[in-house]
Structures are given as structure tokens and as C-alpha cells.
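Okay, any thoughts on this one?
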Amino acid sequence: MDWEGMKKKGASWFKPADNSQNSSYENDIEQQEVKTKIVDGEQITNENKHEQANTQNDNYLFSKDNQDKVVLDIIVSLENMIKERQLILYRSKGLEDQLHTATETISRMKQELMKKDQLLQENSKEISKLENLLTSKQMSYDQLLEDYKDFQNKSNIEYERISNQLETEINKYNKFSEEFTSFQHQNILKTNELEETIRSLKVENQQYAQQYQQILDEKSQLIQTINDFTARMSFSFSQKQSAVGSPDSK
């Protein structure tokens, strides 16, 4: 506050006593005190009560009864000064309480901010770990996907090769089956033909056997006839020899 302001304020303390103005001024002071109490939200402490009691005693000592105008003006000015001092003390007390509360709030908020910063750092580390893990998993997934694509391509190629080979083998089998069916049919025909030939040969063989037996029988008869003829001839020749030899002996 500058010097001019202080002089004006000092001059206001020593204004002539006017009951209506004093009363209005006192009411304004009281209203300001009430407003200050409502705004600051602080209750009156024992110290303030003690000061109020001292103020009441001082008011009792400075009684306005039987006082001249100058003294009355001085008393009113002193009362105004005391009330302004009380108002300043109330406001100062409220501001101190607010400052203390704000300081505690700021300290608490700083602690909470430090905890949050620490938690944020921990979360950042955890997020970094998770990002690294996610990157590793993504790389593994990409590699797995690439391997799967390669495997799928190789499987498709192998499937096509096996399918073609299977189709070739099926065609071969069908051809062999047709050939085997034809061979089997020809074999059956050949077997039937051979069986028929065998039956015919058996019949011819039987005929040949009968003819051979007949020839053997005829040969036996012929040999027997020859033997009989030879025997008769030999007997006849021996008789002739005997007959020729008998005259010589005589």
C-alpha cells in the first residue's frame, strides 16, 4: 500500500462521529466478518474468542457515554481499527489455513504424482516388455506362416505328383486288367481246346491200343504158327535123317 492510500485510510479512521454512519459501518464490518467466515469456512478458535472478550472489555472501557465529540471520534476510530484488525486476522487465519491446506494438498498431489510417475514408468517397462514379446511373437507367427505357405505349396506339388502317378497306375491297372481278362478268356478257350484235344487223343489212343493189341495177338499167333511149323519141320527132318542113317549101319 502506498503513502497516499495509508493517509486516506488514516483519515477515514478519524472521521467525525455520525451515529447512522457508524452503525452502517459497523454493520458492513459485521457482514464482512460473516462473509469471511462463510467463504473461509473456518470456526472461531479459542484464541479468537479470547481476543473477542478483550475487545468487549476494551469497548466497555471506551464507553461512549459522557464523552465529547473528539474523544467519541477517537473511540469510533479505534473501534474501526480493532474491527479491521480482527477482520485482517480472520482473513489472515483463513488464508493461512487455506495455504496450509493447499500446501498439504500440493504435497499429497506431488506424492501421488510421484507414485503415478513410478507406476507409469513400471507400466512403460511392462509395455516395452510386452511390445518386445509381441514383436517376437509376431516374428514367430510370420515365420510360421511362411513355413506353412511353403509346406502348403510343397504339399500341393506333392499331391499333384501323387495324383498323376496314381492316375497313371490306375490306367496301368485298368490296362493290365483288360489284358488279364483277355488272357483269361483266351486261356479258358485254350484249355477247352486242349481238353477237347486230349479227349480226342484218348479216343485215338484207345483205338491205337486196340490195334496194337490186335497186332500183338496176330503176331503171337504168327509166332506160334511159325514155331509149330518149325517144330514139325524139325521133327520131319530128324526122321529123314534117321531114315538115311539106318541103311549105312547095316
About this structure: The chain is about 90% helix and 0% strand. The longest helix spans residues 69-249.
